[in-house]
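User: Assemble these into one structure.

Assistant: Restating your components, then the assembled model:
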Amino acid sequence: MNDGASPSIPQLLSPQNATDLFHSVDAFLFDCDGVIWKGDKLIDGVPHTLEMLRSKGKKLIFVTNNSTKSRRQYAKKFHSLGIAVTEEEIFSSSFAAAMFLKVNEFPPEKKVYVIGEEGILDELELAGFIGLGGPEDGKKMVHLKPNYLFEHDKNVGAVVVGLDQYINYYKLQYATLCIRENPGCLFVATNRDAVGHMTDLQEWPGAGCMVAAVCGSTQKEPIVVGKPSTFMMDFLLKKYQISTSRMCMVGDRLDTDILFGKNAGCRTLLVLSGVTTQSTLQDPTNDILPEYFTSKISDLLNLLGP
Amino acid sequence: MNDGASPSIPQLLSPQNATDLFHSVDAFLFDCDGVIWKGDKLIDGVPHTLEMLRSKGKKLIFVTNNSTKSRRQYAKKFHSLGIAVTEEEIFSSSFAAAMFLKVNEFPPEKKVYVIGEEGILDELELAGFIGLGGPEDGKKMVHLKPNYLFEHDKNVGAVVVGLDQYINYYKLQYATLCIRENPGCLFVATNRDAVGHMTDLQEWPGAGCMVAAVCGSTQKEPIVVGKPSTFMMDFLLKKYQISTSRMCMVGDRLDTDILFGKNAGCRTLLVLSGVTTQSTLQDPTNDILPEYFTSKISDLLNLLGP
């Protein structure tokens, strides 16, 4: 989104502009991976920063593209890291996928084939849908031999693709057959992140990898429900009744978090604790510019005081 | 390629134009999957048609995008189906990948990581290169846990991606790390076919699926050595010393075979025995038009006589 004038240069967060931002915002939307944690390790100063924001009356909302967990599983992960967060404060792309089907009145008697992990199947079940595939198909093999016909369920009306560390040829063929052969079958992507910090020490192929594979075999493009699509924003708005102009999206990715914030009309803050470096941000080829940037969210604590 | 005028309408092969084509061509280039066989089943009338063409002095050349076999393995497959073809008459994308590295003076002390099957590793070895990955990594698992670092060989200077029915997250991470982290690492795709007749009864995700996955995680585009790239044509021309205008490319795919033929300046004949239907050919959105089309290659036998 462009305001019509030339894009503004991102400002390094300072005591002055952090204070201005703080007072003009009612809710902080945080991405998780690269902002709150990396893999299973908290990023420095996160608990105190979140406590400070809560104590000053700010709403905290967690918007994550990682679909491997359901909202329930994410709440557990927060708790295990010593942070009190409720399921209702979490908007994961696994939840978004289930809600997309709900909003679009996907017939509950139809089935959903999943390339992805537990989180998607959990959210589908909570929303009243029948999911197939996912972890259960992780060890299935195919045997390419004469007269072999790979069968698929003609009653699958949607394929949901997210990050899947158990991706295999069986699942790729299953999803491909459903999308190519079942009339009207939807192709839903939780998100298209190229890579993510699945572990604390390094990046790994993200949902963008699995989604691209299915695009490659079907030559179709998916409906994306995670960031930067603003699909999740409708739920947020209904729940919190806060104008997007009084929300600040805090994330570590330009093409998902910051673009999502800008697309939705939020304020935007890039943190450099995840995948984006300052040189990537300031590279002349980058045209996704946050309003502010800083090294990590605990800078807010240092700049604003406890 | 366009001759400057409006594109000609593809002609159904007839006794008259088949005879004209036959006399104006010295070499027939055949795609294999969907033209010669489907999976492991010969398409009707193939052996007699090839014998007739050979007996009338035509060169036969087999140009396949399927990288799962080496030229040696393809020759065996032809023999097992009762067709006499030599290795030298076969140009597979597995061979093309190895030749691409050779022509570009890839240092033999560097290594090549393979997402793909035996064919690529065989051809790399025959060309004097050290291949890693492929079938050997088919059962490897990853364990996403704290402090786990996935190691990769910094000496890998090229990643070759082809069809891999044993695709998994281990291989995707390995290839992604090499391409993203090893300076100058090449990303070579054998081809980008979306699907192929890996079995006789149905289509399965093709190399385009695996290649797209690696594009998705690396956000890089590969160098494609198979059809429709004309890389293999240089070898053909060196070997056979026939002008491309006196070659006819016979294939079942518009976006690989026919485009390859047109890009190289060959005559083109589409057969409907594989993935392309007459309605796809004649759909107004299709702009890849062969000179001729017919149902299967044995129509040549029927139209020209024995």
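The domain at 11-65+227-304 of chain B is CATH 3.40.50.1000 (Rossmann fold).
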